[in-house]
Amino acid sequence: MKPIYHELDFGVTCIDTEHMRKDFVAAYLIEDEGRAAFVDTGCYLSVPTLLATLDAKSIKHENVDYVLLTHIHLDHAGGAGEIIKHLPNATVYVHERGAQHLADPSKLRKGVIDVYGELFFKQFLGDLIPIPKDRIVVAQDGDEITLGNRVLKFIDTPGHARHHVCIWDETSRGVFSGDTLGVSYREFDTDQGELIFPPTTPVQFDPDTWKNTIKHLMNLNPKYAYLTHFNRIEFTQNSADMLIQHIDGFVDIAKQLKQSESRHKTIKEHLLDYLLTIASNHGVTLDESQQVRLFKGDLEICAQGLGVWLDRNT
After folding, report:
1. Contact status, residue 260 vs residue 230, Cβ threshold 8 Å
2. Average pLDDT in the 13-21 region?
3. N or C end of the chain, less CB within 10 A?
4. Residue 181: C-alpha distances to residues 43, 119, 138, 147, 227 (Å)
5. Is the dihedral of CA 282, 286, 292, 294 positive or negative?
6. Boundaries of domain holding 77
7. What DSSP element (H or E) covers 168?
8. What mean pLDDT, rounded, does the chain reach?
9. Would you say 121 and 112 are in contact if contact means Cβ atoms under 8 Å apart?
10. Which of 236, 251, 278 is the last residue of a domain?
11. Residue of 120, 160, 147, 139 lying closest to 250 (CA atoms)
């Protein structure tokens, strides 16, 4: 197969995992002094794309030292158990809250099937393969690893999920941010820059914690965010302010609709109106039907996460 990937500078490659649609879910490959690491893997069905990228770049599988997982949501980590079978020298790093679910993914599997159904699981995610415990390392806040000549530092970043870490790369002054620094699709870029909004995925969305995490990351004075959704963007204080503003906007919608009939459906409709409005204000000129298609993949899980948060906290 011919993988789709974007060569960035600083030895970083953004790989399109080709999950659901093009330019939706990224994994990253970092290279330094002949050694390599993946940051996130996409789902099980994405693994052939990752391996094909190694082959296309003439990187030997035994030269991959790490698989670094920002968190264990399946669009980020569902392929970890499968890809590790092909990387004889690699170790998987994950937040302590996620480690047990990599070794025994039965609860993850059940949770996804309960929400989305077995047909969705098989068609869009494929499978979940357990990882031997001796190949899993818990990434604690502040832990550092060396890849070639560069140091990668783990930062505990709750808010989107309690089991979320980001990886700070001093070499590029970039944060491999998973979902913590938001979602930003390249189709919505305008002269005003990137449009960023929050993925309020169930079940651990915590807006106040998330906003504090963003502020903490900005203390690093990053230049870039390597987003899973999608690709690298320059990340400034304006970017952080936009994300925080839209976390508040999503929460306000949920609070206003807490007692509404057909709450989930109504929240989803209002989220779409909100996203279309901020896109218009951002100068996006795509046809509305195209915008709806691009937002569609996020609306369901964002509405679900807001519903769980409402039931738990208000």
Report:
1. no
2. 95
3. C
4. 20, 31, 22, 24, 7
5. negative
6. 4-236
7. strand 165-169
8. 96
9. yes
10. 236
11. 160
CA angle 43, 182, 245 (to 5 degrees): 155
> What CATH number corresponds to the domain at position 106?
3.60.15.10
Cα(295)–Cα(292) distance, integer angstroms: 5
How many angstroms separate the CA atoms of 23 and 294, rounded? 10
State whether 155 and 40 are in the same domain. Answer: yes
Q: Say whether both 250 and 183 belong to one domain.
A: no
The answer on 177 and 61 residing in a single domain is yes
Q: Which of 307, 51, 87, 90 is nearest to 203 (CA)?
A: 307
- Kindly give the pairing relationship between strand 150-156 and strand 165-169: antiparallel
> How many domains does the chain fold into?
2
Domain end call among 236, 258, 287: 236
Asked if residue 273 and residue 215 are part of one domain, the reply reads no
299 in the same domain as 199: no
Phi then psi dihedrals of residue 78, to 5 deg: -65, -25
CB within 8 Å of 102: residues ≥ 6 apart: 69, 72, 77, 80, 81, 92, 94, 130, 131, 136
Strands 12-16 and 144-147: unpaired
Burial 186-200 (b: 16+ CB within 10 A, else e): eebeeeebbbbbbbb
Q: Is 211 left (phi over 0), alpha (psi -120 to 50) or beta?
A: alpha
Q: What are 139-174's pLDDT values in tens digits?
A: 999 999 999 999 999 999 999 999 999 999 999 999
- 262 and 215 in one domain? no
- Sequence-ordered list of residues with C-beta below 8 angstroms from that of 62, at least 6 positions apart, any chain: 87, 88, 89
Which backbone phi and psi does 127 adopt, to 5 degrees? -170, 175
In the predicted model, what is the mean pLDDT of residues 248-272?
97
Beta bridge mates, 147: 150
Q: Distance (Å, rounded) from C-alpha 177 to C-alpha 37?
A: 15
User: Within this chain, do residues 231 and 254 fall inside the same structural domain, yes or no?
Assistant: no
